[in-house]
Amino acid sequence: MSFFNLKGGFIENLPKIYAMYTGAFLLFFALMAILEQYGVKADTIGILFVAFTIVIYAGIGVLSRTTQLSAYYLAGRQVPPVFNGMATAADWMSGASFVAMAGGVFMSGYPYLAFVVGWTGGYVLVATLMAPYLRKFGCYTVPDFIGTRYGGNFARILAVIVLFVASFTYVTAQIDATGTIAARAFQIPFEVGVWFGLSGILICSMLGGMRAVTWTQVAQYIVLIVAYLLPVFWMSISQGFGLIPQLSYGHAVERIMELEPIIGVGTQLAQEKIAGLSVLSVLHATPKEGAMAAWQFISLAACMMLGTASLPHILMRYFTTPSVRDARASVAWSLGFIFLLYFTAPALATFSKLQLLDPNMATSIIGKPIADVMALEWIQKWSSIGMLAVRDVAGDGILHINGFFIRPDIIVLATPEIAGLPYVISGLVAAGGLAAAMSTADGLLLAIANALSHDLYYKIINPKAETRTRLIVARVLLLVIGAGAAIVASMKLTSILGAVAWAFCFAMSGLFVPLVLGVWWKRANRPGAIAGMAVGLGVGSWYLYMVYNKLMLPWIGLDHLRFGIVGTVASLIAMVAVTWMTKEPDMEIQRMVDEIRIPKGESILSDTH
Amino acid sequence: MTTMDIAEREKHWAKTRRLMIIHLIIWFIFSFGVHAFVGTLNHINFFGWPLGYYFAAQGSLAVFVIQLFMFVKQQDNIDREFGVAED
Questions:
Q1: Chain A: nearest CA to B54, how far in angstroms?
Q2: CB count, 10 Å around CB of A540?
Q3: Using one digit for the tens of pLDDT, what is the confidence trace for A75-107?
């Protein structure tokens, strides 16, 4: 009855369906803009934006419901590469990418770009080392690969543990972000917002598993990329920065570098501490001198890259393409779609900063009388909720750089207001942030629940379970884990960005080496893989604990955001050493490795296993 | 696939491995190499950007995207040459 069941028809019509959907979304945006002109209140527009998009995602989730294993776990292996690329991009770009990245570049300058480089370069590893081979393998989950390639329940359980630790850390941050946006849009308490966000996420994934998540993620990608790019283009054109801001912000960078010494960025520091807010004190494009600064950049980028190539919710997206070749192409498309946002973030940060600093611009505030600055609407709005503060540090009634305190996370949300764009843009940005957080949370929850239902329940506890039981177990687990993550998120234990960096480090410590060697080293065996995962996760966690609690000085500048390097090196040494000390895997496993190295032929595991 | 003889498999894998290593060398240069010399590169002005900053904000990213689309094509050519591409 739903057109999603018309398999061939639906897949062939994908471009048309999503083109219509994009048109409808733009129409909705235009409608909201008109309503604003007729005096509809800003709050109402915000609620309509968030509610409209959630209803659409939920609708797609319900239409994609399924009772088949291969649809639930692999979206029926029929997702075309371009669409899988969009789904992966949404799966990948979290609330942190959408909301915090430009703010990070704004406030922390060049060193923060290590995230931008790391979160894109990782896909080169995914494409060359992993995705096509895992697709040929035909596994449902990442532990499914580890468990079958190395054999034995113990290796499988260890992989499930690493997956759980990494993904759960990550998903709490996403539910936190979802709750924050929902709470703001509907004006409900954060604790309620978290549960509200979670129910939206669950409607998208419970009934249809991977299939439902795939088609909602494509829809969410479209919303988030429109919401990110449209304000930047609008601002750039209205402020005279050029038609394509990403290609023309070089001179804005130049101008900022010229202004920095004049207004004292990096020399005039904050004289008081305001919790959560900071003063701009890092140079925009000039890195610190010396080998240590370079190493800090490189080591952070390396963590994000190896983490990307080990995060199960990303790898499992490539299990859903029709062929090995499509899996490869799909990685390239994913990166292309991610690139659109990531190469825009520094442009956004640069223009946003220039608007505030450059005295030649009407929007500038630094060097202006404090009374004038306080009269600005956006300053009043954000300072009333404690996201921004203005202080008269020199006692001369003029706003100096170290008298302007801001929370970096609000840059993306505040920039349209700084540029004087209408409120409808802010509503759009809220919907985009929500799409980014929801789509990542979807993918993560599904990765965890699938690993537990398939690898733990079906493969280890009850191998005789019927399809119906397996799907019920999968859905119940999804509910339980979602609820668990929401409870942890409502405790607000860590900052969003900290939690995200940890998730990457956990994943790379435990999974990177066994995954790569599983394909590229035929000799790699079970004891080696077990040692690699256990030692990697163990050493990584120990190092994080010691450094984070200041029980030990970091080794060569590897702080708690970079503990994955220590874990991965330990994992590599342990896996290679133990593999050499034990005997090589049997002929059957070696033949299996030969088979995954060529695209042609049946996958190792059938689509219902 | 059992019909494919061992020597052919070895050759296909050797070529695949070589392609992987070439792409990882490019990846390594643009992930780490250029950023290690950001101070020096920043002395060069690239349409307004200091070149070192440009690579981190845009240049390296663009290289990754382009190299991946090339990789897809090149690996497919290797697979076709040995008759192991999917139909």
A1: 8
A2: 28
A3: 999 999 999 999 999 999 988 788 888 999 999
Q: What's the DSSP call for residue A290?
A: S
Residue for token digits 């290690």? B36
Give the model's pLDDT for residue A31.
96
Does any domain span residue A264? no
pLDDT at residue A116, rounded to an integer: 95
Residue type present at position A553: L
Q: What totals of helices (H) and strands (E) does chain A contain, helices first?
A: 29, 3
Q: In the predicted model, what is the mean pLDDT of chain A?
A: 92
**Domain assignment present for A50:** yes
Provide the pLDDT confidence category of residue A410 given band limits of 50, 70 and 90.
confident
Q: Which A-chain residues 88-117 have CB contacts (< 8 A) with chain B?
A: 105, 110, 113-114, 116-117
Decide if A128 and B35 are in contact by the 8 Å CB cutoff: no
Residue of A nearest to B84 (CA): A600
Task: Please provide residue A369's backbone torsions phi and psi, each rounded to the nearest 5 degrees.
Answer: -60, 135
Yes or no: say if A404 and A278 are a contact pair by the CB < 8 Å rule.
Answer: no
What residue numbers bound the domain in which A486 lies?
3-243+288-350+422-596
- Specify the 3-state DSSP secondary structure of A369: strand
What is the spatial distance between Cα A238 and Cα A254, in angstroms, rounded to a whole number?
A: 20
Nearest to A140 by CA among A527, A480, A504, A458: A458
Please count the structural domains in chain A.
1
CATH code of residue A302 = 1.20.1730.10
Q: In A40-152, where does DSSP find H-type helix?
A: 42-63, 69-74, 81-92, 95, 101-108, 113-125, 131-137, 142-150
Parse chain B into domains and list their residue ranges: 11-81
User: Does the structure show a pLDDT above 80 at B51?
Assistant: yes
Set of chain A residues whose Cβ sits within 8 Å of the Cβ of B24: 124-125, 128
**Contact between B9 and A110 using a beta-carbon 8 Å cutoff:** no
With an 8 Å Cβ cutoff, is A237 touching chain B?
Answer: no
Which of chain B's residues have a Cβ under 8 Å away from the Cβ of A302?
31-32
User: Residue A496 above 80 pLDDT?
Assistant: no
Q: CA-based angle A48:A52:A58, to the nearest 5?
A: 145
Give the containing element (helix H, strand E) for B53: helix B51-54
A297 touches chain B (CB under 8 A): yes
Answer whether residue A327 is part of any domain.
yes
- The residue whose two tokens read 């030649």 is A360
Nearest-CA distance B32 → chain A (Å): 6
From the list B35, B54, B86, the residue facing A325 with the nearest CB is B86
pLDDT at A153: 94
Number of H helices, E strands in chain B: 5, 2
Q: How far is A403 from chain B (nearest CA, A)?
A: 27
**Whether the predicted pLDDT of A2 surpasses 80:** no
**CB-based contacts of A64, cutoff 8 Å, min separation 6:** A4, A207, A208, A211, A212, A214, A215, A216
| Nearest chain B residue (CA) to A101 | B57
